Amino acid sequence: MHGDIENESVESQRRRRRWPVVLVTVIAVVSTGCLVTVLGSSGPGVGHFRTPAGRQAYIEAYDAAFAALPQPTETRDVETTFGTVRAYAWINPDPVDDVPVVLVPGRASGVPMWGENLRDFVEHRTVYAFDAIGDSGLSEQTLPLRGMDDNARWVEEALDGLGLDRIHLVGHSQGGGLAAAVAVRYPERLASLTLLEPIMTFGMLPAWAIAWSAVAALPFLPDSWRDHALNRIGGVEDDEVDPDDPMAKMIAAGTTHFDSGSLPTPSRLTDDQLRTLGMPVYVAIASDKSLAGGEDAAEKARLIPGATVKVWPKTTHSLPMQVAAELDADLERFWAEVR
Questions:
Q1: At what angle do helices 246-257 and 52-66 cross, to 10 degrees?
Q2: Residue pair 14/245 in contact by the 8 Å Cβ criterion
């Protein structure tokens, strides 16, 4: 009996460590997706930290979250038209092939969001990861992003600056929408495209997420009520969230201290755009609380010729963290088949 209680406690602690990443990523996605859609925007601006002290608090939280990742081989600041992109490289000296993986994070997540997946990826391949321009992270924006053309362009320019001619591009959430935009505009760059719960790519955000996000945005609500609303968006129970998790602290610091300047919202791909994607495509959709559109999104994604489309059971919007080992193995098989 004592052993059962101990095992249950360990499992509970494991879930509480994992779920902050899951939840707060969803918070950030909804804040730029649903609320921009519902409330409108004052127009494009330049993302920035509101105060020097806020920037310092964020950097300290970022460094603590980043410490959970493998040590990068290289750290680069790459100049683009829209600002400087913070990029990290994990160079595998004996990769399975010469095509690197490039990771684009979800909203307010930055490179540290890949902590659950990166070790598996770098075991086989060279990996690059960006902090997104215009979002919290260590990239620095200098010009507004006036639409998804601009948003895709900084990625293309960063790839040029890193000397990456052919890549496996991977995006989660808002980063999935950005990766899809890059694929439509710069298809020759991509050996393959992986979309993990990409928002606003195969359909609109679900009404329940918009409703809960509107509740969460009310400034007069007690923190406990707002947290409960955000938990409902994330598909988690209140006791599954650990506010002391380093990743949770980093994202909380970003959402508190960073003004995104109105990032472009990902655009739904048309049927014609989907049908003309010529590279191998892998799409992962959550079975529960999907912000990508669930089964409807999966059906839409199947318009892509030859696409691998999977609805992962018992997952929510933060699928990459929830089923990291299984997903990472699936992606390695997918990449290995690309010629």
A1: 160
A2: no
Q: Is there a contact between 227 and 241 (Cβ–Cβ < 8 Å)?
A: yes
Which tokens sit at 166?
């052919």
Q: What pTM, to 2 d.p., does this model score?
A: 0.86
HEC sequence for the chain: CHHHHHHHHHHHHHHHHHHHHHHHHHHHHHHHCHHHHHHCCCCCCCCEECCHHHHHHHHHHHHHHHCCCCCCCEEEEEEECCEEEEEEEECCCCCCCCCCEEEECCCCCCHHHHHHCHHHHHHHCCEEEECCCCCCCCCEECCCCCCHHHHHHHHHHHHHHHCCCCEEEEEECHHHHHHHHHHHHCHHHEEEEEEECCCCCCCCCCHHHHHHHHHHCCCCCCHHHHHHHHHHHHCCCHHHCCCCCHHHHHHHHHHHHEECCCCCCCCCCCHHHHHCCCCCEEEEEECCCCCCCHHHHHHHHCCCCCCEEEEECCCCCCHHHHCHHHHHHHHHHHHHCCC
Residue at token pair 């290289």: 74
Q: 155: buried, middle or exposed (CB in 10 Å: 19+, 13-18, 0-12)?
A: buried
Q: What is the CATH number of the domain that holds 308?
A: 3.40.50.1820
CA-based nearest residue to 188, from 213, 170, 167: 167
Q: Is the pLDDT of residue 288 over 50?
A: yes
Read off the pLDDT of residues 18-31 as tens digits, 9 standing for 90 and up.
Answer: 444 444 444 444 44
Name the residue range of residue 83's domain: 2-336
Amino acid identity, position 54: G
Provide mean pLDDT across the span 31-38.
41
- What is the per-residue pLDDT across 290-339, written as a single tens digit (0 to 9) for each? 989 999 999 999 999 999 999 999 998 889 989 999 999 999 999 999 97
- Please give the tally of structural domains in the chain: 1
Mean pLDDT (the chain, rounded)? 85
Query: Would you say 198 and 179 are in contact if contact means Cβ atoms under 8 Å apart?
Result: yes
CA atoms within 13 A on the CB side of 114: 30
